[in-house]
Amino acid sequence: MKRFNGQEVDYGYEVLEVKVDEEKANDPDSYPVVIVTKKDGKEETFEAKYALGCDGAHSTVRRSLGLKMIGDSSDSIWGVMDFIPLTNFPDIRKITVVQSEVGSVLNIPREGGSMNRFYMELPQRTVAKQVKLEDLQATTRRIFHPYQVDFAETIWWSAYAIGQRVADHFSKANRVFLTGDACHTHSPKAGQGMNVSLQDGYNIGWKLASILKGQTGPDILNTYTIERQRVAENLIEWDKTWVKGMASMGKDEGGVLDVNNKIDFSEVWVKSEAFTAGLTITYDESAITWAKRSTQSLAKNTIVGMRFPSAKVIRFCDALEMQLVRALPSDGRWRTMVFAGDIRQDEPSRKLSQLGQYLFSQHGPIQKYSTPGSDIDSFIEVIVVLSGERLKTSQEQIPHCFWPVTGKWGVRDLHKVYVDDQSYHSGHGHAYEFYGVHPEKGAIAIVRPDGCKS
């Protein structure tokens, strides 16, 4: 912010009210959002084109707009502590679930080598607001018995009731948008609070940026609710199963039993890894996700609506072996990924040449959607992935349009062409096989600014 427009984050404001003039909201150049704030005892009002409500489960923004949270709070009360343990428990530096007749503890070793985070189930009829640190420590000792647990230092602690809720609407007039706990709440045991909230913010962030830079129209904002509300609903359903498994002692309650008739949390954890990392998100059909109009069979392992996966390739210009995802930095650009096959052969060479002529022509999508005066790759970047032997392919065989002139000095960018070939040091990445692309047929994949296949 400071580098681009001299601004910095303004801290210390209390938001009192947010209003949207829905009639003015129809004018894309208007400032229909009014935010009433207080700082140092003085009220101050701001007008904005857009606003994000990232203000937590008790969101003032959400309440001001009349939006509601739908769902339930359970009777299950849990505590959480970040502390330095003194213990003879042998697995203290492993992610572990400890269960006993008096409750459960999820142990997550924290960074630094000494601190741990414990989530512990508290006795029934516990009132979260009345919980003290001593209660959490006593519960932990009872659950870990006969192992000893002492507390050298407690850095942070809290207690909370498990609740799974989703907002009835994620936006107001496509001008104010809710993210994170302001529009979905759940248990905080599996990293989903931060993971999903950051994904919310990034999803709306790149879309707003594209509008404000004049690259797309405001209709793209309709996709925020389409995409993120479904993610939140799936998260809540997953969280209900996760919480039940954490707290239960039997298979009937959702657990996976091991040979000792106890819940096998290793299996539960492994099954949830991809979900926890956000890799299972699949966005539905929308203006920017065209599953029904795509020929999925041409790249059968890259699913439309899911994150574009990564395989090892060789950069053509300098023989650098790298993950293809490194060619897709998070900078707001769309990517056209061209799997052109072996261009030493006539047919793939002809197709790549024709594709380049279309993409970069005056009537093609790249020039059509680029801002006047900007680099040719500033909005849509074309990445080429060849098959065949790199050392037997010459640079002259690759059309010049795929080495565009860019930047202040007008230098040709040679870093946009890659080869699925043997590396000098670590073998073959077999990228075409990984993506499910047949070298003789080839494929084109459109990748959105957030890394999802469009």
Kindly describe this structure.
By secondary structure, the protein is α+β, with helices and mostly antiparallel strands. It has 3 domains: 13-71 and 164-247, FAD/NAD(P)-binding domain (3-Layer(bba) Sandwich); 76-162, D-Amino Acid Oxidase, Chain A, domain 2 (2-Layer Sandwich), CATH 3.30.9; 296-453, Glutaredoxin, CATH 3.40.30. Helix content is 23%, strand content 27%. The chain has 9 helices and 20 strands. The protein has helices at 2-5, 60-64, 133-144, 192-212, 222-247, 265-276, 346-359, 365-369, 431-435, and strands spanning 14-20, 33-39, 42-48, 51-53, 69-87, 96-100, 103-109, 116-121, 149-167, 171-172, 176-178, 184-185, 312-315, 321-323, 334-341, 380-387, 405-406, 411-412, 417-420, 443-447. Helix 4 packs antiparallel against helix 5 (222-247). It is globular and about 75 Å long.
Task: Give the helices and strands, then pairings.
Elements: H1 2-5, E1 14-20, E2 33-39, E3 42-48, E4 51-53, H2 60-64, E5 69-87, E6 96-100, E7 103-109, E8 116-121, H3 133-144, E9 149-167, E10 171-172, E11 176-178, E12 184-185, H4 192-212, H5 222-247, H6 265-276, E13 312-315, E14 321-323, E15 334-341, H7 346-359, H8 365-369, E16 380-387, E17 405-406, E18 411-412, E19 417-420, H9 431-435, E20 443-447
Parallel strand pairs: 4-11, 15-16, 16-19
Antiparallel strand pairs: 1-2, 2-3, 5-8, 5-9, 6-7, 7-8, 9-12, 10-11, 13-14, 13-19, 15-20, 17-18
Helix pairs in contact: 4-5
Summarize the structure.
By secondary structure, this protein is of the alpha+beta class. The protein has helices spanning 2-5, 60-64, 133-144, 192-212, 222-247, 265-276, 346-359, 365-369, 431-435, and strands at 14-20, 33-39, 42-48, 51-53, 69-87, 96-100, 103-109, 116-121, 149-167, 171-172, 176-178, 184-185, 312-315, 321-323, 334-341, 380-387, 405-406, 411-412, 417-420, 443-447. A hairpin with a 5-residue loop joins strand 13 (312-315) and strand 14 (321-323).
